[in-house]
Amino acid sequence: MSRARPTSNLILNICGHDTGLLSSIHHGLYEVSLRGFYPYLDLNEFFAFSASQWKGRENDASTYQKDADITLFEPDIHEIFTKVFSIGMPWLNKHKVIPDELRKKYERQNPYNGKDLAARLSQVSDTAVSKLLDDLSKPVNQYVFECQYEQEKALRGGDNFGLVVMNFQPAYPSKKNLRSNFALEIGRIIENYISSTT
Known about the structure:
Helix content: 40-55%
Strand order of the largest sheet: 1-2
Number of helices: 9
Largest sheet: 2 strands, parallel
Strand content: under 5%
Shape: globular
Structural class: mainly alpha
């Protein structure tokens, strides 16, 4: 299954132009590799998983471990996706607005229509699954604009471990382009996924 890179406009509309959702998708993709999963996921699923797993790890590193039924570290990848989707899909659907002129592009990016997830995930390589499990076990980074870096580093006593400058954003953030820059960067990550599998 091959898809063109989604346009920034489509990404923005799927996310309802919501900064929190866009930033969580970006951060999730920066930290967790879904390269081996991308061909088997609808774009909706790809975004919902990226955002929700990151937000869950940010809010509480042990959030999923507290659930007696499933943890992020269990090897059943379908159970992991189902658990993460239980928060991620409602979050995405809450914001998503697809105008008529983008409907065909949107449908092309979601060819599975959410069906047969277990069968699709069974096609993902063991290597990609192991990499995902390892990524999910790690703490989240702290993301800053260039103008914030030195101050944040000083507040940490000079420690910059996990302190990530968002170089795709201006040094001094502007609300005007903040969301579109996130969408562009998300698109670039997806393009990299696509080019590595062709």
